[in-house]
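Risk mitigation, structural track. In case the binding assays with nickel (II) ion fail to produce interpretable data, a predicted complex structure has been prepared as a fallback.
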Amino acid sequence: MASTLSEAYRDHPQFLHHIKPIDFSSVRSLPDSHAWPQNFVEEANGGGSGSSIPVIDLMDPNAEELIGFACEEWGAFQLKNHGVSLSLFEEVEAEAKRLFALPAKQKLKALRSPNGATGYGRARISPFFPKDMWHEGFTIMGSPFHDAKQIWPHDYAPFCELMENYQKQMKVLAEKLTGIILRILKISEEEAKWVGSSGSTGAVQLNYYPQCPEPNRAMGLAPHTDTSLFTILHQSQTEGLQIFKDQVGWVPVRPHPRALVVNAGDLLHIISNARFPCVLHRVVVNRVQHRYSVAYFYGPPLDYVLSSPLADEQARFRGVTVKEYIGIKAKNLGKAISLISTN
Ligand code: OGA
Ligand code: NI
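Fallback model:
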């Protein structure tokens, strides 16, 4: 049997102090542990605030062309008319609110274990940054049953059923988008046999960014790229997500009531032979509103060899499997791409 995403992460344990969040409900001022250099956060509001990523209608007859352009130019776009019912997102957001509103003691019952993947805790990128983030999350790789049962011993079923349904529906949308993207890249059906197979990898991440007493010195989620082919994100109607565009700066991704944010991840950057950027993004926080989001990370099976298969181009990356790449990323974060570059 093909190994699972959680098995891939099991090989890269984390320290407990990098997993356990502070109890945000009990802090009234910004602790030093969470105080980032002000200029680092504030550049946020400069440069790119007049630009925005394209909003694409999946039903548009030109959708394929528009997606190709957006992937090349931005590495991200917002997608409307995606076919997933809005009530599903409302339900997931309601469950996320119910979860993160629990007392810290109860959430900690589902704390990710050092070599675990599913459960409650800080962002996986935390160890790479000198300061802590104004964020807590709940990661689901596979079934959330075990962790949900720790939190709600008698009432875990609604959460589990909803999250399983969410993964199913996101997988269908992700496969549709993958078909489009592989056509744009002219990748053959032979190469793309994994799409729709049971081996493809998907994970859900619920994110919570509490309101913050000093948002100019706090960071919701530090700049990173995703270890996915692409990520489909639903954000609550609260601003905070920004993507970095060369020569422009940090560009806000303003919530659109019916759209999902799609961003290219490292794996798409690799298989597109660097034609599509893996977009650097981050989340800033605010003083008055809690912010919630739910990300779905999609990718090929773990044993799939990421090569840039276009015959007439020089390969920019050496061939590694998805699993090997996850390992390189877990140890090196932002340097992972350059470590597999051929030049
Ligand atoms: C992530 C992420 C963005 C957001 O979970 O990797 O980038 O808006 N989330 O929460
Ligand atoms: Ni991300």
